[in-house]
Fold:
Amino acid sequence: MKNKIREAGAIPILVHMLSLDDLVCISSLGVLRNLSFGKNNHLNRIAIQDAHGITLLVQLLNTTESFEIQELVTGVFWNLSSSDTLKLPILKQALEALVKNIIIPLSGWKETQGLPFDQTGYNANISWTTVFRNATGCLKNLSSAGLEGRTLLRLNHGLVDSLLWTVRSAQGKNDVDNKAVENAVCILRNLSYRLEAEVAPEVKYGAGEDWRSRGLGGGQFRRKTPDEGKKKKKGKGREVNVTPLPDHTAGVGLLWQTGVVRVYLDLLLECSNPETLEGAAGALQNLTACS
Structure:
């Protein structure tokens, strides 16, 4: 039946209806969500994109105040993100709207609240809603979109912070095994993959650092104390300069701070969701692959 509806030319009409009043929009979104669900409905998902569905879904996220519309839009995005060919288009068009309108506000994270893995300062404002589950599920799929996808996600303002805040806020509570926490941990695991090789030196060392003159490239996740100078390479007569890797208090740099290891270890101790456990162990594996 789903294929017959697509073949009848219904999808462009349904996408157009997203720009009408809320009741019509809600009905159309419900149909699009159903049409895009399931591993055998890739052609339906492509048809939604071809009808400029991603653009209109983003417009809805940026303008609606309806929880029901948010739930349906994020559900459609979660379904669309299961098709590999749609992952980068969704990232490029919808990532900012998903993070700004859903992930950050529903996670309860605010920039004034400090490091997301600190033991203090957590609030009870996190929203374990279907909308939050859908949005994190979509980003979990998108985080497997290769190097370009990981780069877009890593550099998005507030995403890593709010995901870590979500995980840390759930620990020690009954929420630790829920689907949104699982999604958040799996995103963090994927963003930690090949972290040392893929993060640019400007991000690791800062624009003002002298890493250029030291000839440093994508690796060398080494840290030194401020009073350290030059180190002699063992068995060699020459001296090697080592640029310190500074502490990061926000953004992608949080992925390699020592505090994040505690977050993953605590999950391994208290969580019973096998997907979350695999994600936490995978994140630690990715970190230990760095020098």
